Description:
Rossmann fold; 4-stranded mixed sheet; globular
Amino acid sequence: MNQKKNPSDPNGERLPPVAADRTPGRLFVISAPSGAGKTTLCRAALGRFKKIRYSTSYTTRQPRTGEIDHIDYHFISNAEFKRGIETGRWAEWAQVHGNYYGTSAEFIAKELAAGRDILLDIDIQGTMQILKRFPASITIFIMPPSLDELKKRLEKRGTDSQTVVQRRMSNAKAEMAHKEMYRHIVVNDRLETATAELIALIESYLQ
């Protein structure tokens, strides 16, 4: 099979060759303040679009109740994560709430070159990095209906102290101030409606 010449990415690294008869995959990037329902919406989208690959993030935080290693996240040590920063392992990475989060550069490059679509569930810092490297990314921001409702959801979750809730609320305000950098915005007021809107949005790119 003939192969298209594949230039280096912006960081100077060689990406896998792209087959001449294959269109590069699409990269969907979804972000939201903590508690806005991003995880639930992403799972619904992945359930609807079976061929979209989910990029499981790497993190140094401890698993929450019910989370499974290599499914919800790849849980690794601080030392391993920092080695990844030094070796260029991450397509994007950030330190959030005292923990590191990152996305495998190798996974994204190989999947897109193979013509497979990918969904990334990352924060705003990560999106900024991804857009520098993959400017054609389809970015979607999930908004809560209001800050008051977001606070209620965080408190109802019962996994964080009031101090952590306040910190997440402060971060949410900062994140929402950058929502206009995203190509699309979905307000998660009613989960059923937001799910339908997100699925229709993704489907419009897959047609």
